[in-house]
Design brief:
The complex is a heterodimer of chains A (317) and B (261). The longest helix of chain A is centred in the first third of the chain and has 14 residues, at 72-85. In chain A, strands 9-8-7-10-6-1-4-5-11 form a nine-stranded mixed sheet, with helices on both faces. Chain A is built from nine helices and 17 strands. In chain A, helix 4 (72-85) crosses helix 5 (96-109) and helix 6 (216-226) packs parallel to helix 9. Chain A is an alpha/beta fold and 317 residues long. Chain B has 261 residues and is an alpha/beta fold. Chain B has one domain (3-221): Rossmann fold (3-Layer(aba) Sandwich). Chain B is 30% helix and 30% strand. Chain B has a nine-stranded mixed sheet, sandwiched between helices. In chain B, a hairpin with a 3-residue loop joins strand 8 and strand 9. Chain B starts with a strand and ends with a helix. Classes of the chains: A alpha/beta (317), B alpha/beta (261). Chains A and B meet through helix 5, strand 7, strand 8, strand 9 and strand 12 of A and helix 3, helix 4, strand 7, strand 9 and strand 12 of B. Chain A: This is Electron transfer flavoprotein alpha subunit. Chain A: InterPro entries: DHS-like_NAD/FAD-binding_dom, ETF_a/b_N, ETF_a/FixB, ETF_asu_C, ETF_asu_C_CS, Rossmann-like_a/b/a_fold.
């Protein structure tokens, strides 16, 4: 069966959940083979995790270049592994870096590129990718017609399912091509202790109606009671009330949780583009005319500073 | 030496309009008014700031698109760019990002550049990969998704905020950068700027000028194919209640019913 290469995204020695989702999807298309780059001493543990989710082979490479230079070393490695194994397709997580890696790999392989897939299935002539476009108002199904498909997949496209496989580790020597920007300093993001925004089953977001940075306290309290991630609208981020890393919307994160709670968010197109595909949507807003109410399964017209704490108390039950 | 800055911009359908697909499954560019992609305004802004800081720079704004795409160039010129290049050819219609990057790269080579500045993504296709593809094709470093950017001598430096870390990055010119919407608010064109833009040169290029074979681009030359497009059914109307003191409890009851709490 054809090998489907999965670039395994990892941080702090841990496999990130979207990589397990990619391995799960890869099994629909062929035999998953994981690619683990620059993991240092954690490579073996990461390889074992990939094997647990179906990787028959795990290609590993380690070199200082993977952290010292931007994007290009990973492109070198992934391209060379794809060529050597004659991979049937290459899957990468849809992050900013993931898409950049995928694009350059596609160009080097002479392959068509599809980004931001929300689903993947095997078709008569290769993988069929589903995308959600124009602020999630359309679903598009596409195929790659030239070369081995290179596809980036958004987090939460599928629930990761274990399927233990051999996970035979193959160390790879990579020929680095250079011409890359160098990383001169790195400040790891301080973890909030909450779930990753793009990976969370529940997201609670605050917007202009939160009124101030301190106002996010009630949003965070509810999120913690529900085990949820915290999001923010662009208005709240631009006002400096919450970090940009938590921005939900066209220019921030696109999330698709089981439950999305929008507090004090009007629902401008920029925001809707980032959350419209959530399964259940709930909103609390003072303005009964707010466009967010067009999307909701349940909406409360009211003050978030009274409604949210009441809900939090109930959730803590 | 004059610093040659090229800014790549896209003319896109207004995101607040009712965006749709044309019958050939390409983006419908007729039904909704077009404009300079909002995210590219940040690219123009940073290019202008770098030019102003350098004191000896020339900013060229470049687009690939149909006749109306001139509006995007005019906007960038009225913000302060010095000149514009418009690649326009009917055979480009339907090109995928791989082909588009080939066209833009050829045009950049012809125009000449020390620094290429792009926005983080278009607001229609939203792929965010063109800057990386340009770096690959031009054989220069990419310093992309920067929230801060500046040029010191022949080095471009910036801050890249990723999911796991914030990185300081740098590259020797020539290089390709892209900037995020966190890089700094884009300026509004002044009246003077709008008047001056009318006199600034706009060079038109077609595929022949760039030495690109028409078969290599457009719908027929694309390496991906859209099989189907389906409008998402509108979400069914939900329950909306006005808080009269029990709103939080009512919401809790709904979430309990849905098994979230």
């Amino acid at each position: 069966m054809t090998e489907i290469l999965v670039l395994v995204d990892h941080a702090d020695g841990q496999v990130r959940k979207p990589a397990l989702e990619l391995l799960t999807l890869a099994r629909r298309l062929g035999t998953p083979a994981a690619v683990v780059l620059g993991a240092g001493d954690n490579a073996a543990a990461i390889a074992a995790k990939a094997a647990e989710y179906g990787a028959a082979t795990v290609h590993t490479a380690d070199a200082p270049e993977f952290t010292a230079q931007l994007v290009v070393p990973k492109v070198d490695a992934l391209t060379q592994i794809a060529q050597a194994t004659e991979a049937g397709a290459v899957l990468v997580t849809s992050s900013g870096e993931g898409k950049e890696i995928a694009a350059r790999v596609a160009l080097r392989l002479g392959s068509g590129l599809i980004t931001d897939a929300v689903d993947l299935e095997a078709g008569a002539s290769g993988p069929v990718a589903t995308q959600s476009v124009f602020a999630a108002s359309f679903q598009v199904k596409s195929t790659v017609t030239h070369g081995a498909p290179v596809i980036t997949v958004k987090p939460n496209a599928v629930a990761p399912e274990p399927a233990p496989a051999a996970g035979t580790v193959q160390a790879v020597e990579v020929a680095f091509t250079g011409n890359a920007a160098t990383v001169t300093a790195r400040t790891p993001r301080v973890s909030s202790g909450r779930p990753e925004l793009t990976e969370a089953a529940i997201v609670v977001s605050g917007g202009r109606g939160v009124g101030a940075a301190e106002g996010f306290g009630v949003v965070e309290d509810l999120a913690d009671a529900l085990g949820a991630a915290v999001g923010a609208s662009r208005a709240a981020v631009d006002a400096g009330w919450y970090p940009h890393t938590n921005q939900v919307g066209q220019t921030g994160k696109q999330v698709s949780p089981q439950l999305y709670i929008a507090a004090g968010i009007s629902g401008a197109i920029q925001h809707r583009a980032g959350m419209q595909t959530s399964k259940t949507i709930v909103a609390v807003n003072k303005d009964p005319e707010a466009p967010i109410f067009e999307l909701v399964d349940y909406g409360i017209v009211g003050d978030l500073f009274t409604v949210l704490p009441q809900l939090t108390a109930q959730a803590k039950g | 030496m004059t610093l040659r800055i090229a800014v790549c911009v896209k003319y896109v359908p207004d995101a607040t309009g009712d965006r749709r697909f044309a019958d050939d499954t390409t983006t419908d560019r007729e039904g909704v008014d077009g404009l300079l992609s909002e995210l590219d305004e940040y690219g123009v802004e940073q290019a202008l700031r770098i030019a102003e800081a350098s004191g000896d720079a020339e900013v060229t704004v470049l687009t690939v698109g149909p006749d109306d795409a001139k509006d995007a160039l005019r906007k960038a010129l009225s913000m302060g760019a010095d000149k514009a290049v418009h690649v326009n050819d009917d055979d480009i219609h339907g090109s995928d990002v791989i082909a588009t990057s080939a066209i833009v790269a050829k045009a950049l080579e012809q125009v000449g550049f020390d620094l290429v500045v792009c926005g983080m993504a278009s607001t229609d296709g939203t792929m965010g990969v063109l800057p990386a593809l340009l770096a690959e094709r031009l054989g220069v470093p990419q310093a992309t998704l920067l929230s801060e950017v500046g040029v010191e001598g022949t080095t471009v430096k910036g801050r890249r905020d990723g999911d796991a870390a914030s990185e300081q990055v740098e590259a020797q010119l020539p290089a390709v950068v892209s900037v995020t919407d966190q890089s700094g608010e884009a300026r509004y064109p002044s009246f003077k700027g709008i008047m001056a833009a009318k006199k600034k040169p706009v060079q038109s290029l077609d595929l022949d000028d760039l030495g690109i074979d028409a078969d290599a681009v457009g719908l027929a030359g694309a390496w991906t194919k859209v099989e189907t497009v389906t409008a998402r059914p509108p979400r069914s109307k939900g329950t909306i209640v006005t808080d009269e003191g029990e709103g939080g409890k009512q919401l809790a009851a709904f979430l309990a019913e849905q098994k979230f709490i």
